[in-house]
Amino acid sequence: LVQGFTLRGSGKNGRGVGIVCCSNEVDFQQCTFQQGNTGLFLNRFANASMEASTVQNNALAMRISGQSVMTIGSLDPNSASTVIQGNDTGVQVDENAQASLYGSTMVENNSGVGVNVQGARLRLCCDSGQRQVLNNLIGIVVSYGSVDMIGPALIQGNSLAGIQLFDGSATLR
Description:
- The protein is mostly beta strands and 173 residues long.
- The termini are far apart.
- The protein has one domain (2-172).
- Strands 1-4-7-10-13-16-19-22 form an eight-stranded parallel sheet, with no helix packed on it. It has a seven-stranded parallel sheet with strand order 2-5-8-11-14-17-20, with no helix packed on it. A seven-stranded parallel sheet has the order 3-6-9-12-15-18-21, with no helix packed on it.
- 0% of the residues lie in helices and 55% in strands.
- The protein is globular and about 35 Å long.
- 45% of the residues are buried.
């Protein structure tokens, strides 16, 4: 458990702020990742979760890669929101990885893509809170991957498109 930390980088052209590689059950609660090239990078089968945290003002907020699994947000309705905001790109999921946005997670005000899925899987899931992808250039882009949306989700105010699919699939329930 990593709780209550603020990890600050040296700017968008500097190094990444946090890297999790080959690790299981790394839980971030009430943490802030900011002002780095990459806020948080998961690679090589890593498994992590983030709850009640903020990832902001990075070139890339998060990259989930190399068959890693990341849970962003919480199914607990009493948990504070996890917010990914003010980055160039919000979340990038690639190389057969999976990211799940749970609870009242917000991906907002990123100057590029909110969530970029490349050969991977994205899930927006369940009834505890509303997932929001707001005011990005493009909300969600899926290339050669999939997105599953279960329960309430709001994708709104994205300048070019809410969801773009390129040889990808989307399931809305």
